Amino acid sequence: MSTTRDYEVEEVTPDPPRTWWDRFEHRVRKVAPTALRIAIGLVFVWFGALKVVGESPVADLVHATLPWVSRGLLLPVLGGVEVALGVALLIGRPWRATLVAVGLHLVGTFLVFLQAPALTWTDGNPLLLTANGEFVLKNLVLVGAVLMLLAHGRTTAR
């Protein structure tokens, strides 16, 4: 005897937008994921390109986070990875793998709080962030954006 039941799924058609605000939200809902993906992609290409050409304002911060990697190798390679991730976001392919890699990269930026706390906290107080600390902490927003894109599904890649 089978305990599995077959259920019919009834598709629910949303009510048509009634007010100007409903119509606005409907349009924004359609374009927001793509706009978010493109914005993150542009940030990754831009920041990565600065590392590749040796003009990144966070070069010292990156080196302090990974001091065991040669400075001459670290920034160009990291920048190249960031440019590749940014281009993949702009193209929208491969969808899931790119978002997971971007998310992991962003989570990795928080290593600076462990590796170089003097550069991120004032007087060792984790409540008093330096400009570097604020720069890294804002990556929480980008991690949230990546999670939102993953949750939204592949439709944002089209």
Automatic annotation (TrEMBL):
Keywords of the record: Membrane, Transmembrane, Transmembrane helix
Membrane spanning stretches: 34-53, 73-91, 98-116, 136-153
Protein's name in the database: DoxX family protein
